[in-house]
Amino acid sequence: DQQVKQNSPSLSVQEGRISILNCDYTNSMFDYFLWYKKYPAEGPTFLISISSIKDKNEDGRFTVFLNKSAKHLSLHIVPSQPGDSAVYFCAASARWGDTGRRALTFGSGTRLQVQP
Amino acid sequence: DSGVTQTPKHLITATGQRVTLRCSPRSGDLSVYWYQQSLDQGLQFLIQYYNGEERAKGNILERFSAQQFPDLHSELNLSSLELGDSALYFCASSARDRNDLGYGYTFGSGTRLTVV
To answer: What's the burial of A4, exposed, middle or buried (CB within 10 Å: 0-12/13-18/19+)?
Structure first.
């Protein structure tokens, strides 16, 4: 049972246009959401995050939107650049019981290709 | 170079065998997390260690075990290997333990295990 789903395995956009990557989750205990970016032969690297108390967080060309009622988040990249071509993972974090500890649950990733 | 070192990068072994994957965390990081990425799947959380102690367990099979040594490097032991264990195994480290939201994770480049 995948608690974090990225239903689009791939996305292709033209350089300069907007890239929109989507992510859905099922666990209402998730209260922190992150996007990671992964290049070939490298591990994922943190890109941007959002707390469940917000609905938008912006960092330069990257904006993450959270719609809690729909259990949906999206990553917007504007404008898209060829160097953005990578696999993007959505991740969600929830507390484990009373321990205060957390673990990240990842989606299966979306491969973004930005065409020059 | 993320600072998290995983060895070996590639491993090919036969069913029924046992292998050990090694992870050296980023300097100063006390937490180590192991993740498994199978084909078309997200990163599945396996286990976390903090300063030598097991902190959290995810979907880790009984055939798998891990430990973190006094020098903070960690090893993931996979035994009685099956074809379905073929995957990318990632290690991540962070400085924190309790309330770690995930943006502090630094991933290694992974070990690709192929079971034939």
So the answer is: buried
Please report, rounded to a whole number, the percentage of residues in chain A having pLDDT higher than 70.
94
User: Using one digit for the tens of pLDDT, what is the confidence trace for A57-76?
Assistant: 999 999 999 999 999 999 99
Dist CA B65 CA B21 (whole Å): 11
Give the one of B98, B103, B108 whose C-beta lies nearest to A101's C-beta: B98
What is the Cβ-side half-sphere exposure of residue A40, based on CA atoms within 13 angstroms? Answer: 5
**Closest chain A C-alpha to B86 CA, distance in angstroms:** 16
Minimal-distance CA residue of chain A relative to B57: A103
Rounded to the nearest angstrom, the gap between the alpha carbon of residue B20 and the centroid of all alpha carbons in its chain is: 10
**B44-61 average pLDDT score:** 90
Encoded amino acid at A73, one letter: L
